[in-house]
Amino acid sequence: MPFQFQRLELPEVILVTARHFADDRGFFLESYKQSDFADNGIPWDFVQDNRSHSVGGVLRGLHYQMHPKAQGKLVMALIGEVFDVAVDIRTGSPTYGRWVGTTLSADRFNMLYTPVGFAHGYCVLSERAEILYKVTDEYAADLERGIQWDDPDIGIDWPIAEPVLSARDAEL
């Protein structure tokens, strides 16, 4: 199988590592294979890809979309390294308000699946980073919501002290 799947402390959140083949010309890997993902608890048909470029110290999030356009996300670093976070926002969930985070790196060929019902965010650990994320529903600005990155009730242990935020994220 070209992937390893690891359920994290919040078991719906899955760390995926792609097997790659490298030589002096570069490398090759499969970044997504629907059948393997479905067999390992990621049974979604992704409908939109998004790409983001950020400089070091930038923090994006925590973002989510409301139903009926709630999104699951598969996030991977194409360049650089980020600390990627998922927060359970499912009302009534036994893990409501809990978070899990992991480092995604272009050099590690890993990605994080964050399902519907979770807020998502990341901070850039390298000089710059490019992120590609596949989503399970299309973007709907009127249904987009956010949570303050440093919400004390959630208590995310971000690995940067003074992140660079967008005006929108600073006002969450």
Characterization of the model:
The chain has one domain: Sandwich (Jelly Rolls). The protein is 6% helix and 45% strand. The chain contains two helices and 13 strands; from the N terminus they run E-E-E-E-H-E-E-E-E-E-E-E-E-E-H. It starts with a strand and ends with a helix.
Tell me the overall shape: globular
Oligomeric state of this protein: single chain
Estimate the mean pLDDT confidence. 96
Cα radius of gyration in angstroms: 16 Å
Structural class from helices and strands? mainly beta
CATH superfamily: Jelly Rolls
Number of domains: 1
CATH class: Mainly Beta
Q: How many strands, what sense, and barrel or not for the largest sheet?
A: 6 strands, antiparallel
The overall strand count is 13
Helix content: under 10%
Number of helices: 2
* CATH second-level architecture: Sandwich
pLDDT < 50 stretches: none
SSE string, helix = H, strand = E?
Answer: EEEEHEEEEEEEEEH
- Here the CATH topology equals Jelly Rolls
How far apart, in Å, are the first and last alpha carbons? 41 Å
Q: How much strand?
A: over 45%
Walk across the major sheet and give the strand order.
1-2-10-7-12-5
